[in-house]
Design a protein that fits this description.
single chain, about 270 residues, alpha/beta, about 35% helix, globular
Length: about 270
């Protein structure tokens, strides 16, 4: 017998690329097209009601209503599959999603720290909304935001927002931190830049009490299967946010900040 879903826990899935032959650097965070279809079918079968990050954020910020059993599907970076087969697979099942785009990666000639990979283009961004997807920002260069100077942090947040707003013709209100890396100062900067929510990673279930500028997400790796998604839809298989940062997380942040002083801004997990 399938166990009853645990109440109050909200799975927010984080996908990157959906492709069968990804570049090595992103392979760990890539699922095949067949596996992706199986995972989407597991979401549908769970009886959850997928919503956008905007809907979840409105609930966290002001108590706006949510469905009884919500779930959220998100994508980071803007890989080429997103605006084609991935969006089509979602639309075929009537599943909304939120796509966080790194503007430097999808705009020719702009600097970006992401290694080479097939990416969508800035001109294709409006097509995501035609598929029913919500568009958010994932910074300009994919830098580790909690290692930047205040000026560089503001530039990362505001440039990506402005570029996407120019492409779409309306406000972009939601942000995802590259690598999930953030800090109190980064969260304050996100609010000051005009974002009304920001997503982290944490590999945890979100909840109705989660932090609107540190929404917990479950990162989907190539080793995850539809069975993992089924457990997450049941509210199992991960801890539940909000919770305080662990000592290893704080120590890792301090190490990365020190490394950035020596090496400069870099792409790193």
């Amino acid at each position: 017998m399938t166990p009853a879903p645990l109440p109050g826990r909200i799975p927010v899935l984080l996908y990157h690329a959906v492709m069968d032959e990804p570049p090595d650097w992103i392979a760990e965070f890539t699922v095949s097209r067949a596996e992706f279809a199986s995972q989407l079918d597991a979401i549908v079968a769970s009886g959850r009601t997928p919503v956008t990050v905007g809907t979840l954020a409105a609930h966290l910020a002001s108590g706006a209503p949510l469905p009884d059993r919500p779930a959220v599907i998100t994508f980071d970076d803007g890989f080429a599959d997103l605006v084609g087969p991935t969006a089509e697979a979602l639309a075929a099942r009537g599943l909304p999603a939120t796509a966080y785009l790194t503007t430097g990666a999808i705009t020719r000639g702009r600097p970006c720290l992401l290694p080479p990979a097939p990416m969508m283009t800035l001109a294709q961004v409006p097509r995501l909304e035609e598929y029913g997807m919500e568009v958010g920002a994932h910074t300009a260069t994919h830098a580790q935001l909690d290692t930047l100077t205040p000026a560089a942090l503001r530039r990362e947040l505001r440039e990506s927002k402005a570029v996407l707003e120019d492409a779409l013709g309306h406000e972009v209100r939601h942000l995802a931190y590259p690598h999930g890396y953030n800090s109190p100062a980064v969260r304050r900067a996100a609010a000051a830049a005009g974002y009304t929510s920001a997503a982290a990673v944490r590999h945890a279930l979100s909840s109705g009490n989660d932090e609107v500028y540190r929404i917990a997400r479950l990162i989907v790796r190539r080793t995850h299967t539809a069975a993992d998604v089924e457990r997450w839809m049941e509210g199992r298989g991960a801890k539940t946010a909000p919770y305080r940062d662990s000592l290893p997380t704080v120590g890792w942040r301090m190490y990365r900040r020190t490394r950035a002083l020596v090496r400069g801004v870099e792409f790193a997990g």
